[in-house]
């Protein structure tokens, strides 16, 4: 049994080496027709890297010929399938410019835009590519509003938009983290005004509340009443929109302390008169 297993393994290695050798010979061959034939075979079998190298070699040979449209599309798509999105976007756009009336124009336009989507970085990095991806996807939707790809394009725009929102919100939260409470209040106000429908609105209002709380509870006596009342207003605003807020316990705990402090302040003020 052990001998048979070793034999199968050796046979597999031999076949793999033979296959690699045949592919290398094909790459070095001058037979353009055979390269085209095998490139389509590799592409159909999902061996996109091998297909890509062959398509790259034959694209110049077929330029201006009837097969060129098909070859250039597969060349672009082999980049897409191997996640080489920058090169895919470039080649799809080349296809779109060269064959604007192709039956594959919608698919190429969508995949070009989707290639930009995949190049969008994590929210903590510069978002230039994200803005570009949104622009490309929106252009696709404008050109082909009834396309079968339009729903997915809209979904990708929503995801990218949320990434931009998250970046701005994290910046606003950072001011609170570093205890620059006035800057935190302004940043969260600007964030809410800029993204009124954002999923982070509740937390932004809460972060503003926390910043107001730190300022109010540490205020000089002459400004304490005004700031405590402003904090109460922020509390009421949050509960008006989010009566079952995720932060309800902390909000209630803090406002209870605020109410007691305000009551003590009023009592002290009355006695001093």
Give a written overview of the molecule.
This protein has a domain at 25-115: Alpha Horseshoe (Serine Threonine Protein Phosphatase 5, Tetratricopeptide repeat). It has helices spanning 2-28, 32-44, 48-62, 68-81, 85-98, 105-118, 128-143, 150-177, 181-194, 201-217, 221-241, 248-272. It is built from twelve helices and no strands. The protein is rod-shaped, with a radius of gyration of 31 Å. The chain is 80% helix and 0% strand. 28% of the residues are buried. It has 273 residues and is an all-alpha fold.
- CATH superfamily placement of one domain: Tetratricopeptide repeat domain
Would you count the extended β strands for me?
A: 0
| CATH class descriptor name of one domain | Mainly Alpha
CATH topology of one domain, which one?
Serine Threonine Protein Phosphatase 5, Tetratricopeptide repeat
Helix-strand makeup class: mainly alpha
So, CATH architecture of one domain?
A: Alpha Horseshoe
- Apparent shape: rod-shaped
Given as residue ranges, the uncertain stretches (5+ residues, pLDDT < 50) are 10-18
End-to-end CA span: 102 Å
Mean pLDDT: 91
How much helicity do the residues have?
over 70%
Number of helices: 12
SSE pattern, N- to C-terminal: HHHHHHHHHHHH
Percentage of β-strand residues: under 5%
The main β sheet shows up as: none
Question: What's the Cα radius of gyration?
Answer: 31 Å
What characteristics describe this protein?
273 residues, mainly alpha, Serine Threonine Protein Phosphatase 5, Tetratricopeptide repeat, 12 helices, rod-shaped
């Amino acid at each position: 049994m052990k001998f048979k297993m070793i034999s199968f393994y050796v046979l597999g290695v031999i076949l793999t080496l033979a296959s690699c050798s045949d592919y290398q010979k094909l790459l070095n061959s001058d037979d353009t027709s055979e390269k085209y034939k095998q490139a389509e075979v590799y592409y159909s079998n999902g061996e996109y890297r091998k297909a890509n190298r062959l398509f790259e070699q034959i694209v110049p040979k077929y330029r201006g010929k009837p097969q060129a449209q098909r070859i250039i599309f597969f060349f672009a798509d082999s980049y897409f399938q191997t996640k080489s999105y920058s090169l895919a976007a470039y080649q799809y756009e080349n296809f779109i410019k060269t064959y604007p009336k192709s039956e594959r124009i919608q698919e190429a336009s969508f995949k070009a835009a989707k290639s930009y989507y995949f190049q969008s970085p994590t929210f903590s990095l510069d978002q230039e590519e994200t803005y570009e991806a949104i622009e490309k996807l929106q252009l696709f939707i404008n050109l082909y509003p009834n396309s079968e790809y339009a729903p997915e394009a809209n979904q990708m725009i929503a995801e990218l938009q949320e990434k931009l929102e998250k970046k701005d919100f994290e910046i606003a939260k950072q001011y609170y983290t570093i205890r620059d409470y006035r800057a935190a209040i302004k940043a969260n106000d600007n964030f809410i005004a800029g993204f009124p429908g954002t999923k982070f609105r509740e937390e932004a209002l809460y972060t503003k509340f926390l910043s107001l709380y730190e300022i109010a509870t540490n205020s000089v006596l002459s400004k304490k009443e005004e700031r405590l009342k402003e904090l109460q207003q922020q509390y009421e605003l949050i509960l008006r929109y989010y009566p079952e807020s995720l932060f309800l316990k902390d909000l209630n705990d803090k406002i209870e302390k605020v109410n007691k402090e305000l009551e003590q302040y009023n009592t002290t003020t009355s006695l001093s008169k």
